[in-house]
Design brief:
There is one protein chain. This protein has about 100 residues and is α+β, with helices and mostly antiparallel strands. The protein has a single domain, classed as Alpha-Beta Plaits (2-Layer Sandwich), CATH 3.30.70. Helices cover about 35% and strands about 40% of the residues. It is built from three helices and four strands, in the order βαββαβα. It has helices spanning about 15-25, 65-75, 90-100; strands at about 5-10, 30-45, 45-60, 85-90. It has a four-stranded antiparallel β-sheet with strand order 2-3-1-4, covered by helices on one side. Strand 2 (about 30-45) and strand 3 (about 45-60) form a beta hairpin. The chain is elongated, with a radius of gyration of 14 Å.
């Protein structure tokens, strides 16, 4: 069974997240990008950080993973971006739509 790639990235603000989302769609690297406001707490360089961020969820083809990661590292506002991913089974019609919308 073929899979859908789900990749999650965080961005500092909604403006940056929207820019990333639109470019991913325009460049045919993603079929759909969802944005969600989140509040994160983490340690960075010895300090406890508490920040509002935007979580970006990207749906794509597994074979585009490497290109996505290279692109996201170039465009994100973070020095060390959160880029996590996993391949998932999908309902057949949705999988077909993902594949068709990213036909490059």
């Amino acid at each position: 069974m073929k899979k859908v790639l789900l990749l999650v990235l965080t961005e500092k603000n909604k403006k940056g997240a929207k820019k990333i989302a639109k470019l991913l769609i325009k460049k045919k690297l993603a079929s759909c990008v969802s944005l969600k406001n989140i509040y994160s707490i983490y340690e960075w360089e010895g300090n406890i950080e508490q920040v509002n961020e935007v979580e970006i969820t990207i749906k794509s083809k597994p074979e585009l993973k490497k290109a996505l990661i290279v692109f996201l590292k170039k465009i994100t506002s973070y020095d060390l971006p959160q880029i996590i991913y996993k391949k998932f089974n999908s309902e057949k019609k949705y999988l077909n739509w993902v594949n068709k919308s990213i036909s490059i």
